[in-house]
Amino acid sequence: MKHRILVTGGAGYLGSIMVPDLLAAGHEVTVLDNFMFEQASLNHVCNHPNFSIVKGDVRIRDIVAPLLAKADVIVPLAAYVGAPLCAQDPVGATTINHDAITMMLKLISRDQMILMPTTNSAYGSGDENNFCTEDSPLRPISQYAIEKVAVEKELMQHANAISFRLATVFGMSPRMRIDLLVNEFTWRAMKDGTIVLFESHFKRNYIHVRDVSRAFQHGLANFEAMKGEIYNVGLSDANVSKKELCDVIKAELPKFMVLEAAVGSDPDQRNYIVSNAKIEATGFRPQMSLPAGVRELIKGFTMLRNTRYGNV
Known about the structure:
- α1 packs across α7, α4 (90-107) runs parallel beside α5 and α6 (181-191) crosses α11 (290-302).
- Strands 3-2-1-4-5-7-11 form a seven-stranded parallel β-sheet, with helices on both faces. The protein has a three-stranded mixed β-sheet with strand order 8-10-12.
- The protein is an alpha/beta fold and 312 residues long.
- The longest helix is centred in the N-terminal third of the chain and has 18 residues, at 90-107.
- It has a domain at 4-171 and 206-235 and 274-287: Rossmann fold (3-Layer(aba) Sandwich).
- It is built from eleven helices and 14 strands.
């Protein structure tokens, strides 16, 4: 079935992968984005007749309401993503990550479908074995995770909603983010050749950005069976520590030097092992492994350099 889909924040890291995928599947896609990072990540789909773009702020009711009224499906990607950005502008983070979603939920009908990314960072440290399922207690640490938890509670009161608790995302995207852990460590391996790890045994789960897009398409195709539920979305064979992640990168870049600090702590205290069995039981399987993603990043970073503050 073809749908009219509104993607807020659709020019971002995830949206610039997902929007072309949705168009290729035959859907009509409208993107609402404020282009806060001055990105031009959707240039390659502007020729598509089913693509529409609106520049605007998701917090402004007069902009959002008419776009919502035309949509069968809403994918709210617009967010201040990650603890550092939220700490830099906590008011902006709250109004985008929480208040705008609350307003959206009040404006839509019970028949409209919502597929929303949340975060498995909400688990904090998991149980005594650091193991987490969708039923595990939530112990969010950062403002980002705290507000995603609050929004998810409101979201699941909607009759036609799916929440995807995403693992840490990695991989190349037209709106690239180097600050995500796999991306950052691979970048440092290529550009610096070395890294110092704090609390290198801390584990988390990972998922490729293209597999996140596939998970949303899977949810849309199987919506009646999956609605009303929360799903972890990650690679089941990639519950790895920071040291183990560096070992994966070192297998591709043997000169990468990894130093483990005896003192100091990571400001992001997430440490957990996540089960993805629930979404796998619906038939979804990620296609991009962690080593394949690192190889992709190496190719991508060969083309990138930070020229903002340097002469070379």
